[in-house]
From TrEMBL:
Homodimer. It comes from the Eukaryota. The lineage of its organism: Eukaryota, Viridiplantae, Streptophyta, Embryophyta, Tracheophyta. It comes from Oryza meyeriana var. granulata. Keywords: Metal-binding, NAD, Oxidoreductase, Zinc. It catalyses: a primary alcohol + NAD(+) = an aldehyde + NADH + H(+); a secondary alcohol + NAD(+) = a ketone + NADH + H(+). GO terms for molecular function: alcohol dehydrogenase (NAD+) activity; S-(hydroxymethyl)glutathione dehydrogenase [NAD(P)+] activity; zinc ion binding. This is Cinnamyl-alcohol dehydrogenase. Belongs to the zinc-containing alcohol dehydrogenase family. Class-IV subfamily. PANTHER family: ALCOHOL DEHYDROGENASE (PTHR43880), ALCOHOL DEHYDROGENASE-LIKE 2 (PTHR43880:SF10). Residues 11-137 form the Alcohol dehydrogenase-like N-terminal domain.
């Protein structure tokens, strides 16, 4: 725990008092990398607006908001297109604020600057984010659920709903049943998938997953010597129509691809890999109709789509299993968590 200075927001910026933040595996992936320390990690959170800079109109002091790692300026060609959720006007600038490349964090003892993390940095009592990275919520919405909508749940549901556009009656395989994978299962169920196969090393995940749409479970350590792709092909009569990789493992990505159906199978990659390791996919399988697509934040346009997902939670279309998720609440009045190597 370190005491830091959090500077006031500049133009187009918002300073947020964090109410609730959770750990996403992406935080751990980046924490392990060299060259990005000291940084304040965390990107899945909810908070209350403490102050705003000039030209901020869409939120005000006291509003409950979720910060998100993808911007939506609503002006650039990407934000105006249904084909992308990657803002080209304000792309993510590693370690700093997107508009001026500077930081709002520094050590209280030395004044040494501290890096931001993917435009959010939520493992802190206060953070500063650009207004394009903020989504306003109704103050009555449960903050612990709003927290999950800022990354994990939105990423998974969005991948099934927007990126894959899962069709009714489809066979779906989900590799990795963490928060994102379980959210994919919900999204696939909402889209009318007939069979949703969960793949995970933890057998307890099946009981959790069944409440969210998982119909079958495969433990890779309990397949009788067969590969997971062989088992899925046997279960589905040729392979899953849609395979989602939610782990961040290149070997799992390749196995997910091999589990997809020849002719039209689609593999959606959601897991973040901490290095540049290539994925081994035979070229002749690609030209036989299979495809692979990446999914950042589930194709979600935050300001448009997260309020809709929040309403689906209130309407009980998206199921809450709060006891199966963990949150980290900020209690200390004057200290924050910085991960350093």
């Amino acid at each position: 725990m370190e005491e830091v200075e959090v500077a006031p927001p500049r133009a187009h910026e918002v300073r947020i008092k964090i109410l609730c933040t959770s750990i996403c595996h992406t935080d751990i992936t980046f924490w392990r990398q060299e060259g990005i320390h000291p940084s304040i990690f965390g990107h899945e959170a909810v908070g209350v607006v403490e102050s705003v800079g000039e030209h901020v109109r869409e939120v005000a002091v006291g509003d409950m908001v979720v910060p998100v790692f993808t911007a939506q300026c609503s002006e650039c060609p990407d934000c105006l297109s249904d084909r992308s959720n990657l803002c080209s006007k304000l792309p993510n600038v590693p370690g700093s604020m997107p508009r001026d490349g500077t930081t709002r964090f520094s050590f209280a003892s030395t004044g040494e600057p501290i890096r931001h993390f993917i435009s959010v940095s939520s493992f802190t009592e206060y953070t500063v984010v650009d207004v394009t990275h903020v989504v306003k919520f109704d103050a009555a919405f449960p903050p612990e659920m709003a927290c999950l909508l800022s990354c994990g749940v939105s990423t998974g549901v969005g991948a099934a709903w927007k990126v894959a556009a899962v069709e009714p009656g489809s066979n779906v395989a989900v590799f990795g049943l963490g928060a994102v994978g379980l959210a994919v299962a919900q999204g696939a169920r909402m889209r009318g998938a007939k069979r949703i196969i969960g793949v995970d090393l933890n057998p307890d995940k099946f009981e959790i997953g069944k409440r969210l749409g998982i119909t079958d479970f495969i433990n890779p350590n309990d397949t009788g010597g067969k590969t997971v792709s062989q088992v899925i092909k046997e279960m589905t009569g040729g392979g899953a129509d849609y395979c989602f990789e939610c782990i961040g493992s290149t070997s799992a990505m390749a196995e997910a691809f091999q589990s997809s159906r020849m002719g039209w199978g689609k593999t959606i990659l959601l897991g973040v890999v901490g290095n540049a390791t290539p994925i081994g996919i035979p070229s002749h399988d690609i030209i036989r109709g299979r495809s692979v697509i990446g999914s950042l934040f589930g194709g979600i346009k935050p300001k448009n789509d997260i309020p809709m997902l929040a309403q689906k939670y209130l309407d009980k279309v998206i199921i809450s299993i709060e006891q199966d998720f963990a949150w980290f609440y900020i209690h200390s009045p004057s200290h924050i968590l910085i991960l350093q190597i």
